[in-house]
Amino acid sequence: MTAPTPPFRDPRLPFAKRVDDLMSRLTLDEKTAFLHQFAPAVERLGIAAFRTGQEALHGVAWMGPATVFPQAVGLGATWNEDLVRRVGEAVSREARAMRARDERVGLNVWSPTVNLLRHPLWGRNEEGYSEDPKLTSAIATAYTRGLRGDDPAYWRTAPVLKHWLAHNNETARDTSSSSVRPRVLHEYDLRAFRETVEAGAVAGVMPAYNLVNGRPNHLSPHLGRHLRTWTEEDLLVCSDAGAPSNLVDSEHYFDTHEEATAAALRAGVDSFTDHGTDSSKIVARVRGALAQGLLAEADVDAAVRRQLSVRFRLGEFDPEHDPYAKESHFDTPEHRALAREAAEQAVVLLKNDGVLPLAPGTRVAVVGLLADECKLDWYSGTLLHRSTPLEGLYERFGADRVSFAEGVDRVRLRTADGTFLHVLPSDDVPDGARGAEGALDPALLAGRTDLPPLTTDATGTELALIDWGEGVLTLRAPDGRYLSVAEDGYVRASADQPGGWVVQETFRLEPHENGHLLRHTGTGRPVQVAADGVKVAADDADAEVFGLAVAERGEDAVRRVASAADVVVVIAGNDPHINGRETEDRTTLRLPGQQERLLRAARAANPATVLALVSAYPYAVDAGTLPAVLWTAHGGQAAGTALARVLAGDVSPAGRLPQTWYADDADLPDLLDYDVIGGRQTYLYFEGTPLFPFGHGLSYASFGYADLAAEVGDQTVSVSFTVTNTGEVAADEVAQLYVRAEAPAVPRPRRELLAHRRFTLAPGASTRVAFEVPLSALAFWDVAHGRWRLEPGPYALLVGASSEDVRLSTTLTLDGEPAAPRPVGERGLEAADFDEQSGTQIVDRTKTAGDAVTPAAGGTGQLLYRSCDFGTGVTRTTLSVAGTGTVEMALDGGAWTPALSPSAPSAGPYDYTELDGAFTAGGVHDLRIRLRGSLRLAHVGFSG
Q1: What angle do CA 694, 698, 702 make, to 5 degrees?
Q2: Cβ contact 358:611 at 8 Å
Q3: Tens-place pLDDT, residues 12-38
Q4: How far apart are the first and last CA of the chain?
Q5: Is 240 a known active-site residue?
Q6: C-beta separation of 534 from 453 below 8 A
Q7: What predicted TM-score, i.e. pTM, was given to this entire model?
Q8: Beta-bridge partner residues of 6
Q9: Are 364 and 567 in contact (CB under 8 A)?
């Protein structure tokens, strides 16, 4: 007889019931094994192995060739949700098609990144969409909808948002804590996640490496308090790689891994990404936590249930009903066209004095270190197709009209005995791009050892030297291969590009005696010349001292071609693996010195010099002397063709900046200052003059705005206006709607994006643009009462082409909820609910929940709480504190009370005691509190 079909295999039943049935059949050991990223098969039930995690930020990554779209920040610059949804759809289709031939390709995709681009020096700027939460959530929602697919039950892929929460620094990223006050938490950092999750196409989130308010993100109470209240779907929380171990090893938050694993699981982490494919350590930790009573089986069940929910939605248990099971779209003509369209739409024209578009027949000099490059980043797939700016311009204008100078310094390295470094020929060795074979962990890909090491001879090999800034340089052989160091320590010309988790293709030239040491940055060791070849030395004592023989300066080559051209296009920017990437923040907004010299040389030789920045982040450049400036993120496989078409006028540029371009490093806050309100950060609060503002981008057409109408309804504000193409070419425009509270009681944004729309208009054509904005979008987080509040009063609605290019405006007066004083006489004060602060940071009240405030670096800090209602009067105060130090209080601008301090230091940072003292107040007053030392203040109560 045929065995009956178990309910979990019955596609007629709801997923929840099927998950219940399967859970009832799994043993505790089987469920425990599911908690690791690489969940094993359960053969007795016919359940296959499963892994969480497949990188797919702008194409399927790490698994070999795939369509490569523009970087995420470039997709953000399109301001086009429809386009980004189609990109997400193409990426998920390729993921399905690739999985059909390689089961290592996962369908639980770790993408998109919705961290806000608060600080432009963040090394992972390329991964985010925007500094604005509204634009970020709009683009992220579009991408996740494309990744998810349209079927009401089954998902093409299951997107996981990265990285929860308030994560914008690579410097000490696993030990630094972001101090995030409640208003910033709700109005800024949570908002991008919330609106994307509420849209219904998100399968989960990944916590970030950092801490927030002193507590590791993998223990975030906001996972339960907020995230899982935003949707009825089961959300899968996947740890970042190695982060569970960090709780003990680098953060020292717990003494044992059993405690740490149990705490993360109880906080809401469902899948542990740790120790690569080896699940034994995580499984042992969970079992240990269960044996010690730190976990209950119900805690394991909750996590496994959420994982199984995702697996059912992916159709794993219903292959015959899964509408995406036979997906085969891969590298199709449609995907190639979409890659080009996305790259074209991502180009932002920052300045144009009329030199663009280039006229037919123009003689173009293309110069710069990125002119003949199509750079990939850490989260790119391997290129199937490749287009550089030089190739694009050759194709568009003809090779006879385009000249080229890369601008590298051409050098030979002379040893102490007068010989030179020499690259042996390797014509018979096949090419092999790093990662072309696919790898679950590309950080483990080794350098090539099948090529001969460098030697020395009397003439040597001329190398192309590129200084990427900060003294970091690459050296490239004439055959195009970069000098690299493999695991055996030998130096070879073996890499097609710089790359890898630890880049092995970068060096530093350090002055030493009468020459230089050539220090390999990946190992930190200097280069020596040995009898069996050139390699890294054990220490400086064995290092070779090199002389630098310069055959040609890059500036000379640039001047030569620039002076003979009608127009010069300088292609400048970054290599996404060097000086600004995951694990490494930038130190400056400036272009590297070598690229600034090339730009100056081109401009001096030919005033008609266009600067095209190809980069993962903003730069501070001197745009005043240049007739035209463009920016595009690294645009994927069609980057060069797209840029050439924009330069030629085949496409009118319409990208818009997704973040502020500051004019100088002095305009930037500290990298670890996460208080966008108090620090006046991003376009929302920045009061200086940016180099280029948020939302900025020019066109080859011109547009007129007219007939603004606005009406307040019960729950929405209706806004409409007319846009007309007053230019001579068809072009896209991006209309933007902002709001500003005109008489706020608390600091509010200078202007805040409410809505936007990108559309195409023919010359002379008009369109009516209409937005319905919920009134809730105009509310702010009222720390006095711990909730959202719409403040009554006047609000300016601003319509235009950027945050600063306002064409139309009107003012509406809204009926909101009047401010009410804090009922401190009844409830007391949570210390972190301040209105203003100086010299303090927010820390964890306990290891599981709550906030406290302490002076930064054990110094002195002040807190201000406005409009505190003490009722008919109080005479005593009780303060909940831990640590050592003093507390003083004052009303309005009055005198400080006598200092209160613990009689003895607390046993630990979470051992709170209550300080009791006299404090007399009645009615409504502003309250100031001054903290000194390492004291943690959690709560202030009043009585009497």
Answers
A1: 130
A2: no
A3: 999 999 999 999 999 999 999 999 999
A4: 80
A5: yes
A6: yes
A7: 0.97
A8: none
A9: yes
